[in-house]
Design brief:
The N and C termini lie far apart (41 Å). Helix 1 packs parallel to helix 4 and helix 5 crosses helix 7. It is globular and about 50 Å long. It has a six-stranded mixed β-sheet with strand order 6-7-8-9-11-10, sandwiched between helices. Strands 2-1-3-4-5 form a five-stranded parallel β-sheet, sandwiched between helices. The protein contains 13 helices and eleven strands. The chain has two domains: 188 residues, inorganic pyrophosphatase (n-terminal core) (Alpha-Beta Complex), CATH 3.90.1640; 97 residues, Diaminopimelate Epimerase, Chain A, domain 1. The chain is an alpha/beta fold.
């Protein structure tokens, strides 16, 4: 069984794994496993589980290990590392970790995963050549690659997880045909709805070293809004709060490892060096927001 994240990197990573593994796909609907999801996985009783691009909490990792051999491919921060855990926090994407592990040919799916996670910043890294090779091979501009990642992200943003699962087969079939993704009617309709939702929620305040944006929507646009704000205010800490989904999302130039570890003590949390996502009870949101502000100032 391949358990994968729902964004472009997770989708393309699962599609890359399909070139070497013919396993069932499973997409959790959050950064932790519900009891219903655990029951389903346990009933399926897979021989191997491949956890791809999603930093589940330690108790969920222990659960997966209790029912199957577990292999992890990821570039998110994770303390526990075992022989079958292929984790590289310095990798721009999980797709590159899988590509290197299985010695796959560099291709569109690998690059899409990195562009999805790094956006324009990927061009400032050692992976720029990989991106440019794909652009040349498929006669495609970087802006079009970036749009493809937003199109692939669109299903999870509007909470269509059935379509997320179907996306893996869709990109696998079109791994040499980026135009089929770029001009897909349904995905473009999704993207239009999302852009309208982002525009209506892009209201923020600046407080000292913070840009604060509070939203209240079922759409999963919290990380997208944080990216937009960080592009304009890269010298500040970006803090986006979604009351509807009880999410807090932080993006910063600072290494946020300290925040991830603190949040994990009591809440569902994860991220990378520059981002941290937290899910917590509504009654504790305001107090923890103040704690984040304090920690970001003193650390």
């Amino acid at each position: 069984m391949i358990i994968h994240h729902w964004d472009t990197d997770g989708i393309c990573s699962a599609a890359l794994l399909k070139t070497v593994k013919r396993d069932e796909l499973f997409v959790p609907e959050n950064f932790f496993l519900t009891e219903k999801e655990k029951n389903y996985i346990e009933k399926r009783n897979p021989e191997w589980i491949y956890l791809v691009d999603i930093a589940l909490p330690e108790k969920d990792i222990n659960f997966l290990e209790s029912i199957s051999d577990l292999c992890i491919f990821d570039h998110h921060r994770r303390k526990e590392k075992k022989k079958s855990f292929y984790i590289d926090e310095n990798s721009p994407s999980t797709t590159f970790i899988i590509k290197n592990h299985y010695r796959l040919k560099e291709d569109l799916l690998t690059v899409l995963g990195a562009v999805g996670d790094k956006e324009e910043k990927i061009l400032e890294t050692e992976y720029r050549n990989d991106v440019e090779k794909v652009m040349k091979r498929y006669d495609i501009e970087f802006e079009q690659l970036l749009k493809i990642t937003k199109l692939l992200d669109s299903n999870y943003v509007i909470n269509d997880f059935k379509a997320v699962k179907e996306s893996v087969d869709f990109v696998f079939r079109n791994k040499n045909n980026p135009e089929a993704i770029l001009y897909n009617k349904k995905l473009n309709e999704n993207l239009k709805k999302i852009e309208e939702k982002i525009e209506s929620n892009l209201n923020y305040n600046i407080e000292k070293n913070f840009v604060l944006c509070e939203i209240n929507t079922e759409y999963r646009i919290i990380s997208r809004i944080a990216r937009i704000l960080f592009k304009e205010y890269s010298d500040k800490n970006i803090l986006v709060i979604n009351r509807k989904t009880r999410n807090i999302y932080v993006r910063s130039k600072k290494d946020l490892s300290f925040l991830i570890e603190d949040a994990k003590k009591n809440y569902y949390a994860g991220g990378k060096k520059d981002v941290c996502g937290i899910i917590l009870p509504e009654r504790e949101m305001d107090s923890y927001i103040e704690k984040i502000k304090y920690m970001m100032e003193v650390i």
